Amino acid sequence: MRDKLRELGKGPLDKYAKFVSHHAIIVLAIFFIFTIFTGYQASLMETAGTSQKDWLPEDIEVINTFELIADQFAGSFATSTIVVETEPRYAKSDEIRDVRDPEVLRYVDLLAERAKLVYGVVGAESAADVVKGVNGGRIPPSLRSVKSLLEHNEMANQKISNYISDDYSLTVVRLNLLEDIDAEEVVEELREVINVDKPKGVSVEISGDPVIEVTMQELAEETMGMTSFVSFALIILILIILFASIKYGLIPLLTIVFGLTWAIGTLVLAGFEITPQTSGVMAMIMGIGIDFGIQVTKRFRYELQIRKKEEAMVNTLCNVFYPMCITTLAAVIGFKCLALGKLPVMSDMGTMMATGVVFCMVAALTVVPAILVLFERKSIKPNFF
């Protein structure tokens, strides 16, 4: 059965292999234009942040309920926190060691007022609000006055525990945010909010839903770049050692270079969003895709021992085409089966891996053969075996 399939496809496959072998420049020109187009699209790629809601399918009851409540009570379900903590460096100094100090209270009050000016922030509360609420809208002039005020007002003392830690080393400014805000813009503005002179001996940071989302996005971009670079460098080293040749060690890399560029460009053009979760599959695509380039290169070098380079490439493509197609088909089926579950992120990962593997195979059957033919100077090599 397999032999019959080979015979049926032999004619078109032979014609294709001969076209690639004898018209390598034309093949490269066609795919060079395609690479410019997809490369431009890939340059527009941005890593999109994700929230816990994005991990769940849209049609389940919990998401429907979430959306219903969010519509009725806008701004109730996204929060952020500005954290002010004492960090004295010296044992005997005038640095602040108690966040109830009026200087800290005035500082967190300033942070809250500045935060309220950020678009998307619908409320900001701090310990300063509690103290001012029981002291005529003013903050007492000394730490002793603040302590005395709280000791004589049990309700205020209970309320302030929502903003100050038990050891008085940490205090927070609680922010309520609109649900549909642009996380990047809000976090950037909040970072500007805390970028003001602070009292001696204290540090300030921000946390919360949008901050975590943006941080994940930044780390994903950094990790994607790092893992891609390290993977690429290690693959180069292994290939050069494997082929004992810089030329034959570098040419198979074109499989993943072009394959990833085409895949990302096509996905971006189709409206696919790269998330921190899906960005991690690029190294996996490299690991699978490089095998295609190795197969073509090794087979070509084998055929080149007894045939002219054009004929060697025709034989190479005819022998590797079907195994590579079967491997790709199996990989695509396996990856797309991730969509059988209900988690969107798994489906997106499957789509990205399947697309990447398909384009790596296309690169291995087009660009790599054309480059090998053009860069092979000798028409025939002696047979050492």
Give your account of this protein's structure.
With 385 residues, the chain is an alpha+beta fold. The model is unreliable at 72-76 and 380-385 (pLDDT under 50). It has helices spanning 2-22, 24-43, 61-72, 102-116, 127-133, 143-151, 154-160, 183-193, 209-243, 246-250, 254-269, 282-303, 309-336, 344-365, 367-375; strands spanning 78-86, 121-125, 170-177, 202-208. Helix 2 packs across helix 11 (254-269). It is elongated.
Give the CATH class of the largest domain.
Answer: Mainly Alpha
Give the number of DSSP strands. 4
Low-confidence stretches: 72-76, 380-385
Structural class: alpha+beta
Give a quick account of the main beta sheet: strands, pairing sense, barrel closure.
4 strands, antiparallel
What percent of residues are in strands? 5-15%
| CATH homology group of the largest domain | Multidrug efflux transporter AcrB transmembrane domain
Helix count? Answer: 15
* Global mean pLDDT: 80
- By CATH, the topology of the largest domain is Multidrug efflux transporter AcrB transmembrane fold
Distance linking N and C termini: 33 Å
List the domain count as a whole number: 2
Name the helicity range. 55-70%
- Strand line-up in the sheet with most strands: 2-3-1-4
Order of helices and strands: HHHEHEHHHEHEHHHHHHH
Radius of gyration: 31 Å
**Spatial shape:** elongated
CATH architecture of the largest domain: Up-down Bundle
What labels would you give this structure?
Multidrug efflux transporter AcrB transmembrane fold; 2 domains; elongated; 385 residues; four-stranded antiparallel beta sheet; alpha+beta
